[in-house]
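Session log. Operator J.P. requested a structure for one protein chain; no other inputs attached. Running the standard single-chain path with token output.
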Amino acid sequence: MRTLSAEDKTIGQDNYHEAIGFTRREFLQGVIAAGAVSGAGLGAMYFGYEKFANPVRVGVIGTGDEGNVLIGGCTPEYVQVTAIADIRPYSVYRAFNGDWTTPTRPGLIKQYKYTNEEEARRSVTVYDASNGGIQALLDDDSIEAVIIALPLHLHAPIAIQAMMKGKHVLTEKLMAHNVAQCKVMARLADELKTKSGQQIHLATGHQRHYSVLYENAKHLLKWGMLGQLHHIRAQWHRGNLPGNDSWQPPLVGGDPDSKTDKIKTDLEKYVKELEKAKSPADIEALKRKIAQQEAWLKDIVDAARFGYMEKTFGDRKVSAMEELVRWRLFDRTSAGLMGELGSHQLDASTIFCSALRTDGKKAHPLTVHAVGGRHIFPADRDADDHVYCTFEFPGPEYNEKFDLGYKQPGGIKGVPSYETDPNKKIVVTYSSINGNGYGGYGEVVMGTKGTLIIEKEQEVMLYSKSDTSASAGVKAAGSGYALDTQASGGASAPVSKAAAGSGTVSRGYTEEIEHWAYCIRNNSPENRPRCYPEVAMADAIIALTTNIALRKSARGEPGYVKFEESWFDVKSDETPDGSSVAEEMQRLKEYKIPT
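Structure written below.
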């Protein structure tokens, strides 16, 4: 892809559209098409980091659903997973063997090409309830860096302890459970050094910063193909219903609200299917399912020993084990829909809004109005199952001065008068609901010249003006799709779509882990992860402040909050949620990891 020169950037906006006509065609036909076949990641080629001789020695802390996805993003050329830590036997099993339900959780055996689990365990130390767990992993001086994929309330405590041990950290999103914790993490990452005296790299897993599709979308905005950006519509809709909730996975021994032990029932079903199976492929698949179910039945943990707590919702009792397994449902351990889902898409929205800035800074919202509630599920959780939000972001001209063309009273003759234009805003609407999955998840970016649609982090489509028909302008080109566009930029629909048989688009997990490792190996001021602390903290502030607006709405108050710029300042102690930086600093430094 052509790199923009200083001369390019000085060309007037209209002339610039003409000047990059060829580049645009090459960009859309070549790079996006390449992204459509980049299941293994495009990072080194596209983002410009290089391979190195000695992979970073990494420990993965938390190997459940998200931890297993991140294991799938670990490229052996960049990171060598030498240890894992988890208190759940089932999570340890999946860390090695993967999860048959999804290819995004391949497991260490497949990812690192071990022959079997026995061989893998000779290279990967398991820290669990029997040998000191997380604390023992952090005490292991051979481990240079850790990936943290624990429940949200543990992100800050474990990240702080890891950094104080001189280890680099990549933690799943959100960055932390409250804003004060985010500021403590950011400050310590800046102050602490590794044992070799190098800067500690703290990254957070908002992987869209490393998605080729989102990177391309950012360039389309910069190049003016959408014109003036004025509205972004984002959603994450799921068909979850009571009795079939992805955030309420089965418990060993059966669910408190059901007489059925789903884990055991499914195991019995697979055993019966295996007895009748004929083809080698079916037999192999069923054996894998059976082995995973058998491992799941051994998932018995004294969760209270590790800090998980019992609670009640009316007559409904939640055990410590249920809080561990279903942590996303409870305020103590999670930040609900906005923390788990909304934070990703508001991060995407800020990527789009930030693309239009000239100062290189991340765009921060001005206001949020939110309503929501528990509309479908019974009283077995804190988390809302419906959230609807409206955000105002500053547009490029917002708060910038422009010539009014007249002299204000008291002004100096011949000197233009200026004022701000409060109308130049970008409005972002977001909904996350359960009970109906229509539309899935994705973002629609609307400008005066076109519409950009990104669906499920897999497809990108560009439409001219308000025309969203898919009948014109697209022709097959080899294994992908190409855009027949004019140099003046009249985009037809859609620009690019992943073609059948062309592979799966990388969602950015591979690239973010590779680049984090690259920054560790090439530890200099100019090298830092894209989602560094200030960026990750801003995403957390947006999600956590939206939860404040939702709580206000639930109390019958206006669900409205105006964002303060001091909240986004790492050096400021001000927070939107009342959390105390001083108190969190003391608590996090003294935190004792349960063993």
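Operator note: Residues 533-554 form the longest helix (22 residues).
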